[in-house]
Amino acid sequence: MSRPFFHHAQPYSLADYGWDEAYERAFAPHHAAGLIPARIVRAERGSCEAITAAGIVRAQIPRTTGQGDPLSAPCTGDWAALHPSATGHAPVLDAVLERRTALVRSSASRTSHGQVLAANVDTVVVTVSLASPLNHARTERMLALSWESGARPFVVLTKADACADAQSAAHEVSEVAPGADVLVTSAVTGQGLDTLIAALTGTIVLLGPSGAGKSTLGNRLLGEERLATGAVREVDGKGRHTTAWRELLPLPGGGVLLDTPGLRAIGLHDAQDGLEQTFAEIEHFAQGCRFTDCAHVSEPGCAVLAAVAAGEIPQRRLDSYQRLLRENTYAASRTDARLRADREATKKEITRHLRATYQFRERQ
């Protein structure tokens, strides 16, 4: 059975999903063209579900939308302009409003394109399970992604009831998360949940690996069991992907929750600013290096290496920083190479077209 274009109306307005005066002003030209505002709550290939003033609708996405650049393709969290539905036809997405923030990772494919995980996010909740050994490198990677997005990151330690010394773990994580609040929570005992709910604002995205407790935490924020949860394997402490797609859900106390599938791989994509914020103490010491292009490897007068020797920066932290910098630099070089190849392909196409035109004229 085909799904209806319009779903039943629900007691939520566009404002509940984050619509404000700034969006209203940005939408003015679309209003004049007879289009209606909507926020994408779930994006699929060729279509999306979006909230409008009339309720949730299922809209078509033209094939040409985002063609050639996945970063511009509509995704969950985007504000869009829709052509109203005609009789017997679904609404059609016409344009996507400029994003305020975007959570972008390197595409899982072999291309050099990035992939937008969520748009117009205000708060990123990086979930770290205390039921498993802490993986600081993964936390640093997720924080770099979060800071780069333009949203405010929180590190939320889940499953505190399964940890013998949660406060010690929180202190340890705080050392690798400068500038981000670190909160200890337990969905079982309720520890820290009131503090977390009071701190979160706007559109909130849960980010973390499978088994970190994102869906369980999301259900506590929603006040009901809306998100599927699954057990963690005892063999390796990993969980299954209980969330299969990204979707927006309004929170009872205000704000919007975006639950994401567990991410096995989080590649960086143009995340230089995010790395500098994540490793702020290294960037601080780097200002004292003798050379402005110091790589902090073996250069004389390197203030970062001096800080490592003095115990002010852990060697593991510097190693992680340099590893992520190399990854980010490589991703940027692939993007530059693709752009050069695209330009060369365009020039060749123009040359072929001109050659065919001249040959046609000569035959006349």
Automatic annotation (TrEMBL):
Residue ranges of domain EngC GTPase in the record: 119-264
InterPro entries listed in its UniProt record: G_CP_dom (IPR030378), P-loop_NTPase (IPR027417), Ribosome_biogen_GTPase_RsgA (IPR004881), RsgA_GTPase_dom (IPR010914)
Cofactors that this protein relies on: Zn(2+)
Cofactor note (record): Binds 1 zinc ion per subunit.
UniProt: Zn(2+) binding residues: 289, 294, 296, 302
Start and end residues of each CP-type G domain: 109-266
Positions that bind GTP: 158-161, 208-216
UniProt keywords, alphabetically: Cytoplasm, GTP-binding, Hydrolase, Metal-binding, Nucleotide-binding, Ribosome biogenesis, RNA-binding, rRNA-binding, Zinc
Enzyme Commission number(s): 3.6.1.-
The organism's place on the tree of life at top rank: Bacteria
Gene3D superfamilies: P-loop containing nucleotide triphosphate hydrolases, Probable gtpase engc, domain 3
Assembly mode: Monomer. Associates with 30S ribosomal subunit, binds 16S rRNA.
PANTHER family membership: SMALL RIBOSOMAL SUBUNIT BIOGENESIS GTPASE RSGA
Functional note: One of several proteins that assist in the late maturation steps of the functional core of the 30S ribosomal subunit. Helps release RbfA from mature subunits. May play a role in the assembly of ribosomal proteins into the subunit. Circularly permuted GTPase that catalyzes slow GTP hydrolysis, GTPase activity is stimulated by the 30S ribosomal subunit.
Listed NCBIfam families: ribosome small subunit-dependent GTPase A
Protein's UniProt name: Small ribosomal subunit biogenesis GTPase RsgA
Species lineage: Bacteria, Bacillati, Actinomycetota, Actinomycetes, Streptosporangiales
